[in-house]
Amino acid sequence: GQQVMQIPQYQHVQEGEDFTTYCNSSTTLSNIQWYKQRPGGHPVFLIQLVKSGEVKKQKRLTFQFGEAKKNSSLHITATQTTDVGTYFCACSGSARQLTFGSGTQLTVLP
Amino acid sequence: DAGVIQSPRHEVTEMGQEVTLRCKPISGHNSLFWYRQTMMRGLELLIYFNNNVPIDDSGMPEDRFSAKMPNASFSTLKIQPSEPRDSAVYFCASSLDRGAFFGQGTRLTVV
After folding, report:
1. Would you write out chain B's pLDDT as a tens digit for each of its 111 residues?
2. Which of A5, A20, B75, B98 could disulfide-link to B69, CB 3.0 to 4.6 Å?
């Protein structure tokens, strides 16, 4: 099935700094989804991107889907301690099975 | 809606015992996923059902694992016999058209 690689694996930032995580695939993706998992919690769906070059915003979060639909990014502006968690990208295979990247664990230092 | 409901939340069992994990998806969702999460291997897709039919079970580790979805409102994941390396958090998720909604997970410990 399709696979996505996610970098970095870990990121420590000072509160107020920006944060970006990247998701890459060797094949064209039909869509990309982003999830957040708080420590001890379960993954929570954030957004789905479908169109080439699509950019969506949710408050301080900006999601982008590459022009070739092979990469995506999640950018957080001015991080807060509530942003702590692991951010996953996920892609749908040909049969709509959902495969997750390895995640980026974000730590925000107060 | 109460969301995806999994039971039990925690399970501790001895090696060799049978373990059954249960999931009730969100009403109206037609896709159901079982995932296993560990520090080493991340979130692994075990099996995916669409309209109660198993579509992709390529992630099921071995014959000790089996999953069923007898109807649209219930699914089980069974491990028989269980081994210590099966210790993990097992998540069930359901979906309709965009995004998967996860249950709280079952933390399984096999000693």
Report:
1. 689 999 999 999 999 999 999 999 999 999 999 999 999 999 999 999 999 999 999 999 889 999 999 999 999 999 999 999 999 999 999 999 889 999 999 999 999
2. B75
CA dist B111 and B109 (Å) reads 6
Residue A95 near chain B (CB below 8 Å) = yes
Taking the Cβ of residue A98 and every Cβ of chain B, the question of whether any pair is shorter than 8 Å is answered with: yes
* Partner-chain contact B105 A42, CB within 8 Å: yes
Smallest CA–CA distance from B6 into chain A, residue: A42
Q: Which are the contacts of B75, defined by CB distance < 8 A and separation ≥ 6?
A: B22, B23, B25, B32, B34, B49, B67, B68, B69, B92
Inter-chain contact A100–B45, Cβ cutoff 8 Å?
yes
Secondary-structure percent of chain A, ordered helix, strand, coil, rounded to 5 = 5, 55, 45
Per-residue tokens: A15? 């509160």
Bridge partners of residue B78, in order along the sequence = B20, B66
Contact A12, A79 (CB under 8 A): no
